[in-house]
Structure formats: structure tokens, C-alpha cells
Recover the amino acids of this structure.
């Protein structure tokens, strides 16, 4: 992989909590407007620039993109974002805090165990050609309209305002470098509201260390997009446009902003399903239909705690069903899936084929209005709530996919089914920005 250090544009340490934000695509315009209320330094003014206009303003309005440009200029003039004088790499650590350490009622509480868990990423400029030529591998399809929106954002700002989230095959030599860097005093260290995750950031100044990181990455054959497929496509697309227009493959625009984590540190959680009806079946008929392909058993006489650990899926090919006020365990029978097929082995494929399509008649997960998806960060209690409220008829909890499954699919050139992966924590935006100049 070809990477390079860059002159990051960053907030002064005393302003980082005011400037930084959640990624643009994890909240809607009104949520961003609420989070940025009273804070003129919030990055949402640049990455969700429609909040600078009256509610209801189309986020694709030309005036909105223009506002992003004006806000970016303002942030630099005011000193809320300042460019480093020399090219650097950075280390960005995200910590899921142990119980009692995070914010009350924070997102992180859904993941927190007795011990804190930290993942350490290197912030780099990733080479556009590695994406275009398939060495940066994807596992999801992208939508052209969403790609074009982010491409326009990158074009008008001439910068990557938000990083993409990559995984690389872990290496002990990189782990050792990161461990040494993180012995030093961090540039930023804070717990972000409302999620309750800790974000810590170090600047790598030593030129020998920077050169060694570049050398090691050159030995890595591939990286994998964990989160940010649209941002990756957009950033690489703008870089390719500039390459074609100038013929220059050495300019800064040939690189885009990425945070690269070793694959053995990442946290993937479940992505669950809720369905509005049983396709004309009674509850008893639906449960009977499941028995053709699953071992079905009701959870009886168990104490269900607030985290619903007793009824969570126990492993691959085991599912938890909530229906009619009761929890059931579903285990796919032998011969109903193909463990040798990187797509067929996935529990999203098994549940889609044998439950959603075969029994409930839901054939297109992207367009069918009878189904909705719930990130596991909300917990199984959210599934129960939506069924008990009468909004949904049933809920299905899945065991999380593994990083190895994602790698296998990306390496084979296949694409994950929709709504398969959910990575937490999300990258915080605004810790560092990459200029294309």
C-alpha cells in the first residue's frame, strides 16, 4: 500500500471538543442542527451545511455547498482549524470505556464491559490509485447519488473534511511503533457526548518514525474499507478527476484522508431486523414454517437482564426471534447454508433466504417498506420496544459478522448483502482535515 504523511488541518487542543463532531451520515439535518445549537465552532457547519439555513432547506441546494466553503474559510480565518507546518502521521485511539467510566446513558454503555477496550489507528494519506486498482477493497455497494453529493463536497472545499475507516492485516512492527508513540502526551484526549467514547490523538513528529511507517505499509498487499464506502468512492473519484485533468500523479490530490486500524482490534456489532407483519400468517403458523429450516425453541423460565444477554444469539447460524411477547432461539439446520461460500455462510444471507424471502415474501432489503434495520448499539431492548409498541410484528437478532468474513468477501470480489456490518465506535470528524493542495 502506498501512503504518505500530510500537513493536517486541526483544531487547537482547547477547541477540539467544540469543533469535532459525529460523521455526517450518522445523523439527519435536524439532529445536526440540535447538536450544533449555540456552537459556531461545530464542524457540522461545514459537513452538514444545510444547518446554516432554515429547516427544510434541501441539503443539495447550491447555496448549501457554497455555505460549506464560506464556513471552512471562516474556521481557518478564526483559527478554529490550523494547518501543521510539516507533513506528519497521527495516531488516533478510540476507547470503549469500562462500566462507570463513560457518560450516563451514553451509546458506549451498550458495549462497555468490565474492562476498557481501545483500538489504535494510524491517520494517513491513502493513495487514490490503490482504491482505483482494487488494493483498497470494498465489501458494500455504493449509491451514485450519495457518491456525487460527497464528491461535490470534496470538490468545492478542495479537502477531505472527514476520514474513511480502513482495516489492515495487523503487524507487530506497526503495533510496536504505535505503542511507542502513545507513551507520549496526547494532543487531544476527551470523552465525546453523546456517545460516551474516549478519543485520544497523538502527532508523530519524528521523521525516522514517519519514514518507517511508510516503508511498512508498502509491504502490506491490501487494506479493507470497514466504514465509509461512499466517502472512499467520493475521495478517490475527485482525485482521479484531478489526475486526468493535470496528468500529475505526485500532487497532494492523489491522496485522501484515512484512519487505518489493525484488523485484530476492530469491534463489529450486530445489525438486526424488525418486520411489520407475518405475510398473512398467524404467529403459530409462522413458527411452524420456521421449523422446516431451523431448530426452534422458546426461552422459558429465564431471567432476562437489562442487557438481554440471556437471549442474545450464541454464535454463527443462531438467531434470536422476538414475537408475541416471547423470545425464541432459532438455529439453522445443517445443509441449509454453505460454509464454503463466503456469502452463503453469512447469517444475513441465511435469514434473508430462509425467513425474510421464503416465509415473509421480503425480497429486496433496500426497498421493501415492511422491514427496518436496527444497529446493535441500541441493544435488544430496542427490538422488544418496537414490537411491544405495535409498530412491528416481529424482530430478529443476528450474531455479528467477523472481520475475517469481511476480508474473505472483499478478497473474493463479492459484495456483502445490505445492512450487514455495524462498526463502533464511529470515527470522530474534525480531529484532522486533509487539504488536496
Amino acid at each position: 500500500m502506498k501512503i504518505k504523511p500530510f500537513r493536517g488541518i486541526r483544531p487547537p487542543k482547547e477547541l477540539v471538543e467544540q469543533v469535532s463532531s459525529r460523521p455526517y451520515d450518522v445523523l439527519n439535518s435536524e439532529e445536526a442542527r440540535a447538536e450544533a445549537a449555540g456552537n459556531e465552532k461545530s464542524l457540522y457547519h461545514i459537513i452538514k451545511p444545510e444547518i446554516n439555513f432554515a429547516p427544510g432547506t434541501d441539503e443539495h441546494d447550491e447555496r448549501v455547498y457554497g455555505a460549506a466553503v464560506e464556513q471552512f474559510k471562516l474556521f481557518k480565518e478564526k483559527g478554529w482549524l490550523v494547518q501543521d507546518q510539516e507533513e506528519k502521521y497521527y495516531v488516533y485511539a478510540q476507547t470503549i470505556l469500562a462500566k462507570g467510566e463513560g457518560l450516563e446513558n451514553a451509546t458506549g454503555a451498550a458495549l462497555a464491559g468490565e474492562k476498557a477496550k481501545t483500538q489504535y489507528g494510524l491517520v494517513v494519506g491513502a493513495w487514490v490509485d490503490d482504491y482505483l486498482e482494487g488494493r483498497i477493497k470494498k465489501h458494500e455497494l455504493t449509491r451514485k447519488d450519495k457518491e456525487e453529493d460527497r464528491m461535490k463536497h470534496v470538490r468545492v472545499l478542495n479537502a477531505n473534511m472527514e476520514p474513511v475507516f480502513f482495516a489492515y492485516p495487523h503487524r507487530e512492527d506497526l503495533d510496536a511503533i504505535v505503542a511507542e508513540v502513545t507513551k507520549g502526551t496526547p494532543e487531544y484526549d476527551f470523552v465525546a457526548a453523546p456517545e460516551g467514547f474516549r478519543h485520544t490523538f497523538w502527532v508523530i513528529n519524528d521523521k525516522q518514525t514517519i519514514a518507517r511507517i511508510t516503508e511498512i505499509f508498502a509491504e502490506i498487499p491490501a487494506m479493507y474499507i470497514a466504514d465509509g464506502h461512499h466517502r472512499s468512492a467520493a475521495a478517490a473519484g475527485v482525485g482521479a478527476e484531478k489526475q486526468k485533468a493535470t496528468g500529475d500523479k505526485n500532487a497532494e490530490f492523489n491522496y485522501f484522508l484515512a484512519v487505518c486500524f489493525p484488523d485484530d482490534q476492530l469491534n463489529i456489532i450486530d445489525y438486526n431486523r424488525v418486520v411489520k407483519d407475518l405475510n398473512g400468517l398467524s404467529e403459530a403458523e409462522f413458527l411452524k414454517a420456521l421449523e422446516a429450516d431451523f431448530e426452534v425453541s422458546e426461552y422459558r423460565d429465564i431471567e432476562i437482564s437489562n442487557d438481554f444477554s440471556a437471549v442474545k444469539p450464541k454464535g454463527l447460524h443462531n438467531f434470536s426471534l422476538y414475537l408475541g411477547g416471547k423470545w425464541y432461539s432459532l438455529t439453522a439446520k445443517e445443509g441449509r447454508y454453505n460454509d464454503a461460500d463466503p456469502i452463503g455462510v453469512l447469517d444475513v444471507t441465511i435469514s434473508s433466504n430462509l425467513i425474510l424471502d421464503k416465509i415473509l415474501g421480503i425480497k429486496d432489503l433496500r426497498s421493501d417498506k415492511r422491514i427496518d434495520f436496527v444497529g446493535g448499539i441500541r441493544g435488544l431492548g430496542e427490538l422488544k420496544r418496537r414490537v411491544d409498541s405495535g409498530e412491528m410484528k416481529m424482530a430478529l437478532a443476528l450474531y455479528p459478522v467477523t472481520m475475517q468474513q469481511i476480508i474473505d468477501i472483499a478478497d473474493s470480489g463479492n459484495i456483502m448483502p445490505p445492512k450487514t456490518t455495524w462498526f463502533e465506535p464511529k470515527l470522530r470528524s474534525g480531529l484532522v482535515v486533509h487539504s488536496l493542495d
